[in-house]
Design brief:
The structure is a single chain. With 504 residues, this protein is an alpha+beta fold. Strands 16, 17, 18, 19, 20, 23, 24 and 25 form an eight-stranded mixed β-sheet that branches. A six-stranded mixed β-sheet has the order 3-2-1-6-15-14, sandwiched between helices. Helix 2 (100-110) packs across helix 4 (128-138).
Length: 504
C-alpha cells in the first residue's frame, strides 16, 4: 500500500511516495520564485498549485494505487480565492512589510496581552490577519470579489478534495484563531473587517478532508478512492516526521527558514513566552503543545551566497556533477570558526525579537577573508541565533533535551557538527532528511487506518542515523564569538535606526 506526502514551501514543493513498510518509492521536487520588489515579497499561488500538480503527477507515475495523500505547507501567507477557484492577486508573504499599520490598529484596540492570551501569539505584522486587513482596506476590489480566504495548505486540500478545511496549527498562524477554544476568534475577525464565513472550517491536525475530486484523480493519474488528508504547518509535519512525539524532544528544521520546534505538556502563557515572541500551538497528542523558535533566514542565506556571490563557482561544480553546496562545504575550515560574525537578519529578525526593521550585518572582514569564510560565517550566524533562542526557551520554562535534524541542512555534515559544537547539544540525524513529507505520510497512513496511531507509524518510518556530539574544545572557541554575537543585535539596531531618527 502506497501513501504520498506533499510539502508546499515558499520556494519549492515536494511529493514523496512511500510503501506502508516505510520504503521510499519515489520523490519529485520543483522550485518556483518569490517575486521581490520595493513594495514587498509576493508569491503566485496559481503557479504554486501548478507545480504541486506536477510533482504529484511525477511522483505517483507507475505506482498502482495511492491510498492517501497528506498535505503540509508553510504558514501565514493567505490566498484570496475568486470565481473558478483562482487566486485574485499574488499572496503577500510573511516577510512582506505590508500590514504594519493594521497590526498597530489591532494592538491599540485589543491590547497585546489580550491578543496573546487568546491567540497564543505576541502580535506581529507577519501573521495573516494584518495582511488580510491591508487587502480589505487597500485592495477593496479584490476583497469584494473574494469567495474564500485560505492559506496554501487548505487551498491545496480544497483543490484536491473540494473541501475547505484547515488544521489547528495552520489556523494558529493567522493570529485570529483561539487556540484554547480551537475556533476562529470572531471578535478579532470582526474588528479586522473579515467575514468569518470566508474562512475554512478548522479541524484537528491529520484530519481526513475527503476523497479526491474525480476530475483531479484523472488529471493526476490517481485512483478515485484516494483519500486527501489535512496535514499541518510544515514545522509540525517536520516534528512528526522525525518522531518528536514526547515532551522535551525538538526538531531543528533547516530549510528556507531555520526553526526549532520543541514539544511540551501544558500551555506556557508566561511573560517570558510573550517577551520572546514564542507562540502556543496545539500539537497532535492531547494536552501537548509546540512553539517555534526560528530565524526567517536559514538555508536561504546559503542560497543567497550561491546565487549572488558564487554563481560562477556554483556553475563550475554543476558542470562536474557536484552539488554546489557539497563543493562549498568541502572548502570550509574544518574545526575552527570563520572569524566572522554574521547577523542573519537579511529578512528582518524572527524570534526572539520579531523586528522587521533590523538588517543583516557582517562583522570581522579583513584583507585575508575569503569567500568561503563568508559562506561558513553565514552558517555560524544562523546557528548563533538558534543558540540565543534555546536560551530564551529555557527562560520561558521549555527545556530542550534532544534535537533531531531535518531539512536540506540536515544533509550537510559540517553544519551538523558546527551546530553540536555551538549549541553544546547532541544532534541526531535521521535516515530520511525530508521529514516534512514523511510526517504527512505518517498522518495520512494513520488517518486511513494503515497504522493505529502515530507512535506505530513512527516505528515504521523514523530511523535515527548518525549522532553529532559537541566537541568541548570547539565549543570553547565558538563561545568567545557567541558572547560578542549576543551584543550584535543591539549595536546594529542602534546604528541602523539612528539614520532616520529612530532608536533601537
Amino acid at each position: 500500500m502506497a501513501i504520498a506526502g506533499v510539502d508546499v514551501g515558499t520556494t519549492g514543493c515536494k511529493c514523496t511516495v512511500c510503501d506502508s513498510d516505510g520504503s521510499l518509492l519515489s520523490e519529485a521536487y520543483r522550485e518556483y520564485d518569490i517575486q521581490k520588489d520595493d513594495d514587498g515579497r509576493e508569491l503566485d499561488a496559481w503557479e504554486v498549485w501548478t507545480n504541486v500538480k506536477a510533482v504529484i503527477r511525477q511522483a505517483v507515475s507507475g505506482i498502482d494505487r495511492i491510498h492517501a495523500i497528506g498535505i503540509t505547507s508553510f504558514g501565514e501567507t493567505t490566498i484570496f480565492v475568486g470565481e473558478n477557484d483562482k487566486p485574485l492577486m499574488n499572496s503577500l508573504l510573511y516577510v512582506d512589510p505590508r500590514g504594519e499599520e493594521q497590526c498597530k490598529k489591532l494592538i491599540n484596540h485589543f491590547g497585546r496581552d489580550y491578543l496573546f492570551q487568546i491567540t497564543g501569539i505576541n502580535p506581529h505584522a507577519m501573521y495573516s490577519i494584518s495582511k488580510l486587513m491591508w487587502v480589505a482596506e487597500n485592495r477593496r476590489d479584490v476583497y469584494e470579489r473574494t469567495k474564500h480566504i485560505c492559506q496554501f495548505g487548505d487551498y491545496i486540500v480544497y483543490m484536491l478534495s473540494g473541501v475547505w478545511q484547515i488544521d489547528y496549527s495552520l489556523a494558529c498562524r493567522t493570529m485570529a484563531f483561539d487556540y484554547r477554544k480551537l475556533d476562529w476568534a470572531e471578535d478579532i475577525l470582526q474588528f479586522a473587517g473579515i467575514d468569518k464565513g470566508l474562512m475554512s472550517a478548522s479541524a484537528p491536525t491529520g484530519s481526513t478532508a475527503g476523497l479526491i475530486r474525480k476530475e483531479m484523480a484523472s488529471e493526476l493519474g490517481l485512483s478515485e478512492d484516494t483519500l486527501i488528508v489535512s496535514g499541518c504547518h510544515d514545522q509540525i509535519a517536520a516534528a512528526i516526521g522525525t518522531g518528536c512525539l514526547k515532551c522535551g524532544m525538538a526538531v531543528d528544521g533547516t530549510g528556507t527558514v531555520e526553526c526549532i520546534t520543541p514539544i511540551f505538556s501544558h500551555p506556557q502563557c508566561s511573560k517570558a513566552m510573550q517577551k520572546y515572541n514564542f507562540v502556543m500551538v496545539p500539537y497532535v497528542e492531547k494536552d501537548t503543545y509546540v512553539t517555534y523558535a526560528f530565524s526567517f533566514n536559514g538555508g536561504s542565506l546559503l542560497k543567497w551566497y550561491r546565487d549572488n556571490l558564487a554563481a560562477l563557482e556554483a556553475g563550475g561544480f554543476r558542470k562536474n556533477g557536484i552539488n554546489p553546496y557539497d563543493g562549498f562545504n568541502e572548502q570550509m575550515k574544518k574545526g575552527e570558526p570563520s572569524g566572522l560574525l554574521v547577523l542573519p537578519y537579511f529578512s528582518g529578525s524572527a524570534t526572539p525579537y520579531m523586528d522587521g526593521e533590523i538588517t543583516g550585518a557582517i562583522l570581522g572582514i579583513r584583507d585575508n577573508t575569503t569567500s568561503i569564510d563568508l559562506y561558513q560565517g553565514l552558517m555560524e550566524g544562523v546557528t548563533y541565533e538558534m543558540r540565543l533562542n534555546l536560551e530564551c526557551l529555557k527562560e520561558a520554562g521549555i527545556e530542550v533535551t534532544e534535537l533531531r535534524a531535518t531539512g536540506g541542512g540536515a544533509q550537510a555534515e559540517v553544519w551538523l557538527q558546527m551546530k553540536a559544537d555551538i549549541l553544546n547539544k547532541k544532534i541526531v540525524t535521521l535516515g530520511n532528511a525530508q521529514s516534512g513529507t514523511l510526517g504527512c505520510i505518517m498522518m495520512a497512513g494513520t488517518s486511513c487506518g494503515i497504522y493505529r496511531n502515530l507512535e506505530e507509524a513512527a516505528k515504521v518510518f523514523v530511523k535515527t542515523g548518525k549522532e553529532y556530539l559537541p566537541d568541548p574544545k570547539k565549543h570553547k572557541m565558538y563561545e568567545a564569538f557567541y558572547i560578542k554575537y549576543k551584543r550584535l543585535y543591539e549595536a546594529v539596531g542602534r546604528v541602523w535606526k539612528e539614520d532616520d531618527g529612530r532608536t533601537a
